[in-house]
Amino acid sequence: MADELPGSVLFACSYNAVRSIMAATLMRHFYGTRIYVECCGVRAGDVDGFAVEVMNEIGLDISSYHSKTFDQLEDGFFDLIITMSPEAQHRAVEMTRTMACDVEFWNTFDATIVEGSRETRLEAYRQVRYQIKKRILDRFPIGPAPTV
Q1: Residue (of 127, 86, 128) closest to 107 by Cα position
Q2: At a CB cut-off of 8 Å and minimum separation 6, what does 60 contact?
Q3: 10 CB-near residues (< 8 Å, 6+ apart)
Q4: Model-wide pTM > 0.85
Q5: CA dihedral over 55, 59, 65, 71, signed as positive or negative
Q6: Beta strands in the chain (DSSP E)
Q7: Are 17 and 41 in contact (CB under 8 A)?
Q8: What is the mean pLDDT of the chain?
Q9: How far apart are the first and last CA of the chain?
Q10: What homologous superfamily is domain 2-139 in, according to CATH?
Q11: Computed from CA positions of residues 133, 138, 139, 140, in that sequence, does the dihedral angle turn out positive or negative?
Q12: 76-94 in b/e burial notation, b at 16+ Cβ within 10 A?
């Protein structure tokens, strides 16, 4: 299974403040150094406090992450770009016009639009976290660790 994994994956969304950070952090958690993982946004925004809280609930700390844009990426080549918003999809397609890179669109709910009590909002972020985790594990099944 490990040989089916791409060498590098970029997760992208609109602000690099919730979805792409969650996805990159989960991917690193599940696959460690077997895949180079990065994330970015069409625009950079501050890491969302609710995202920090729901990731902390599962033992993953994203509080010190500094968001970046497509233009701020140090490495511009990826085997796969997974976009999580229509805006990021358009930007990724534009970016990859001249390179051999697959682009997948994972339309992922934007929890920042949910209004209501703190618990209502946290539950929306938990659902996004769960949706991303399920998508990652469905798309990249975890096999046995490679033996060296």
Answers
A1: 86
A2: 25, 26, 29
A3: 37, 38, 39, 40, 73, 78, 80, 81, 82, 92
A4: yes
A5: negative
A6: 8-13, 36-41, 80-83, 102-105
A7: yes
A8: 92
A9: 15
A10: Response regulator (3.40.50.2300)
A11: positive
A12: eebebbbbbbebbbebbee
28 token code pair: 């690193």
Whether the per-residue pLDDT at 2 is higher than 70: the answer is: no
pLDDT in tens, 27-85: 999 999 899 999 999 999 899 999 999 999 999 999 999 999 999 998 778 999 999 99
Domain residue ranges in the chain: 2-139
Tokens 């497509």, residue? 70
User: Could you give the CA distance from residue 79 to residue 25 in angstroms, rounded to a whole number?
Assistant: 18
Pairwise CA distance, residues 65 & 79, whole Å: 23
Contacts of residue 120, defined as CB under 8 A and 6 or more positions apart, other chains included, come to: 114
Q: What are phi and psi of 124, to 5 degrees?
A: -65, -40
Tokens describing residue 56: 């902390």
Distances (CA, A) of 72 to 12, 75, 118, 125: 13, 9, 33, 26
> Tokens at residue 140, please?
């990249």
